[in-house]
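We treat protein structure as text, and this decision shapes the records that our systems exchange. Because each token names a local backbone shape, the row as a whole describes the fold. For reference, a complete record is included directly beneath this paragraph.
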Amino acid sequence: MGKKLEGNNLWDSSNRTVLPEQMSVISRGERETWQSVKPVLDEHKLEEIEHTLALSLRSHVRVTIVLFDPLEHKLLSGFVTSIHTHSREIKLQWAEEWKWLNVDDIVEAYIV
């Protein structure tokens, strides 16, 4: 990372200087370019995810789930305690907390 130069509000990084006002614009621009569209999963990948979720429910094994988010993918780890096939939702529980998740928001699922 860059280091702050003494006595002024400039940042020095690799022989370039950036004003604080420019940093906020750069950060905002990086966030905008990071935003992505949800990947379209093929049938095989969807079956793999569904199989992993069912295995967690049946065998009570911990599963790690990667949820799509436009800014950054979110990782959740826990146990599948319920599956609603009609609404395509699962209940993921960890410690004393739980959350209902839409299966269509999951981009990856694997057993820990």
